[in-house]
Each structure stands twice: as structure tokens, then as C-alpha cells.
Amino acid sequence: METSTHNSGVIHAGIYYPTGSLKAQLCIEGAERLYAFCEAHRVPHDRCGKFIVTSEQNEFGALEALARRGTANGVRGLEMVDLPFLRRREPHVDACAALWSPATGRVEAEALVRTLARQAEAHGAILLRGARMLDGTPRAHGFDLRLERETISARTVVNAAGLYADDVSRALGGEQFTIYPCRGEYAELRASRRHWVNGLVYPLPHAGGHSLGVHLTKTVGGAVLLGPTARYQTDKDDYEGDRIPLEDFVAPTRQLLPDASLEDLTYGGSGIRPKLQPPDEPFADFMIRPDRSQPAVIHAAGIESPGLTACLAIASRVAHLVKESLITNH
After folding, report:
1. Using CA atoms, how far apart are residues 288 and 314, in angstroms rounded to an integer?
2. Residues 212 and 202: beta-carbon distance below 8 Å
3. Does the pLDDT at position 1 exceed 60?
4. What residues contact 237, with CB distance under 8 A and at least 6 apart?
5. Whole-angstrom distance, CA of residue 301 vs CA of residue 4
6. Hey, how many other C-beta atoms are within 10 angstroms of the C-beta on 139?
7. Strands, E, within 66-147: which ranges?
8. What is d(CA 100, CA 53) in angstroms, rounded to the nearest whole number?
9. What's the start-to-end Cα distance of the chain, in Å?
10. Are strands 265-275 and 142-147 parallel, antiparallel or unpaired?
């Protein structure tokens, strides 16, 4: 399930992203759609809230700036809270200032993806699992898509290929862009220490814009994830090679949980973000638009965080673009 499930499973509120960006707009819209969908289809989730904290007095202004950005994006309920408020909910977390986001939640990502697949099939979609696309030939009214075992004719093609969206665009004769694989690795708290964390606790995001920092995520299932890290790599499917030593998680974990030690940690999983920005650029928005060379191709590329949160809003936007394509190009 690639990027869709190899993540923290957080339903983001929309705090971090530049105001007016697709990431901000679709996160806000998508979160409410996702809560409603999960409720209707009994996907495990909750609106547990999240703290963004700092232990440095000189970072208080950055925390307030983050609150202002979130409010400008339309996030409701953001509040700078005092330490008694934090300690009542997260007594093991160390901080000198905290921002509380009651709109943030968590979801069991794999259950969500499986439910979406069932709903798609129930509404007439045909899922060809494990069917790799080799290339596509433009026709007067769309494309012939050559798979390993068959050829499919399509009036419109949606390129939502995650880490391979750039490869798919090239195979279809579309425009050239690059997906940069950025691996995020996790550690976990051992089961005997899971009571140290009750919900979601984040540090201030990295200044470079490539990561929200190593944070604490208590999942719907009760595990406590520490991560993810952020490291660009060449390989799009290497999740395990040259893993970060477990010792490297101790210092960032202790910034939030001062009682943590190496003995309290164990290795977790990893995921790979399909980034559109190279390492020296701080931000790239989602690419959700028709291809400039092949208008019958609709790109949904660079769907990293908050892509899980925004998935239903992204789908709605893509569906609108497909309808426009069918009217314009046929």
C-alpha cells in the first residue's frame, strides 16, 4: 500500500501549510470529509487532538506564528495553552510552551484504504491489483494503456502513481517532472512504556520544510511511534537498507519525553514520501491538474503529507478535472 499506509496515520488539521496552497485548502476540506467517512463506514479513528510543543523559550514566537498560520488557513480551536493544561493530558511530556489543536485526530490507515477499495468496487470500479502499466499510446479520444497482460483503452487517465508518478508521466508522453523519494523511519516505545503518551505530541517543524520533526504518535491500536525522520534517497522501494541506528532516536525522543532511554525503544517501520521538491527547496505543493502536453492525463502527484487527510478532497477535485477533460477533449 506504499505511502498511503506507511505513515503516522494522523488526520491533520491544516496548520503547517502556506495559506492558499492546495495542501492547506484540501487538508481543511479533507479532514472533515474523512471524519464523516470514517464514522459512516466504521473505520477506526478518533479526534484526539494534538500538542505542538517547545522546550526553548526563544521558540515561543515561532509557536505563536504557527498558530497564526493555522488560524489563517481556517483551522478551528487552536489555542496556546498553559503547562497545567498540557500536563493533565500528557504528564510525561516536557515543554515550556504548547499549542493545542483539538481538530487533529488519527485513523487506522490500512483499514481506511481497504474500506475505500471496497466502496470503489461496490460503485462499479474494477481494481486490477498488481497490474503494472508499461506505457501508453495517445489516441484521438484518450489512450491505449499497455499493461503486462492486456491493453486498456481510456478516455482520461488519472496519474496517481505515488512514488512512480514521474515515470508514469514519461511513459504516457506527458511533461517531465521528478519525484524525489524521501524516506522516513520510525522507532517505537516498548509496550511497557506506551502509557507515557496518550495522544499526539509534535515539536516545531524543521526549518527546512521537509519534515514535521520526530514526533510522538499514539496510534488507534495503542502503539507509540517515534518519527518519522527525513532522508532523501535514490531508490523508490528501499524501505530497510542502511536503517538509522536506534541510538539516533534517543535524543529527539528525550526532547519530548525526558525519561526515555535507549532501553525504552525498539525499531519501527519506515515509509517513503513522494516529494516534488528537491532537498534544497523548502516547499512544493500538490500537483493536481491536467498534463500540459497530454490534456487527457490528469496528474495527482507529489501527494505526501497531508495526503492521507486530504484524500477524499483530492478525489473530489480530480473527479471534477476528469469531467472537465471529458467535455473539453472529447
Report:
1. 8
2. yes
3. no
4. 163, 272
5. 13
6. 12
7. 79-81, 97-101, 105-107, 133-139, 142-147
8. 9
9. 33
10. unpaired
Kindly report, residue by residue over 107-139, the tens digit of the pLDDT: 999 999 999 999 999 999 999 988 999 999 999
Name the nearest CA neighbour of 298 among 203, 131, 160, 128: 160
What is the predicted pLDDT for the residue at 130?
A: 87
pTM for the whole structure: 0.95
Coil/strand/helix, residue 24? helix
User: Over the stretch 246-297, which tens digit does the pLDDT of each residue have?
Assistant: 999 999 999 999 999 999 999 999 999 999 999 999 899 999 999 999 999 9
The DSSP code for 123 is: T
Place of cell 517532472: 177
CA distance 305 to 309: 8
The secondary element (H helix, E strand) that includes residue 313 is helix 307-329
- Here the cell at position 234 is 535514490
Average pLDDT over residues 96-113: 97
What angle is formed at CA 293 by the lines to CA 290 and CA 295, rounded to 5 degrees? 40
The DSSP line for 167-220 is HHHHHTT------EEEEEEEEEE-GGGGGG--SEEEEPPPTTSS---SEEEE-T
Q: Is it the case that residue 51 has pLDDT exceeding 90?
A: yes
pLDDT at residue 206, rounded to an integer:
75
Tell me: pLDDT of 208 over 70: no
Radius of gyration of the CA atoms of the chain, in A: 21
Task: Find the range with the poorest average confidence among 137-141, 152-156, 159-163, 260-264.
Answer: 137-141
Instruction: Tell me the residue type at 96.
Output: C
| Rounded Cα distance, 191 and 201, in Å | 18
The beta-carbon contacts of 281-284 under 8 Å, at least 24 apart in sequence, are 281/209, 282/208, 282/209, 282/210, 283/18, 283/21, 283/209
